[in-house]
Amino acid sequence: MPKKYNTPKRKIVVKTRMTDEEYADFTERAKFCGISQSEFIRQAIENAVIKPIITVSLVNEKLLSAVGTLTAQLGKIGGNINQIARFLNEHGTPCNSLSSEIRAAVADLADLKFEILQTVGDAVGDVQTFKL
After folding, report:
1. Could you give the CA distance from residue 60 to residue 68 in angstroms, rounded to a whole number?
2. Whole-model pTM?
3. Which end of the chain, N or C, is more open, meaning fewer C-beta atoms within 10 Å of its C-beta?
């Protein structure tokens, strides 16, 4: 009776080129593990932790600097809003117009944050995320 394997049907073939040294290392590692070259590659892909290389160009450095500056400014503004909120919580709202102005300022900050994120997204382009 022939041996039956419970493996998924695989029909896609992946090809790559290697130097003699790379191929020797590859075959030696697969042999050492006692698995086929195909299984070695599948396990390597499944268990690999590959960190992407980020290239920073002159344009990106300027963009990163601008975003850093804006982030610092937004942080300071947020701190000021927290101080105002603490004062209002301790002493009460002096008048309704002040609380409506604060709400408007917070809404403007949220709009600014959205605009910054959208501008950065447009400058950098679409970013695709892969599970590694």
Report:
1. 12
2. 0.37
3. N
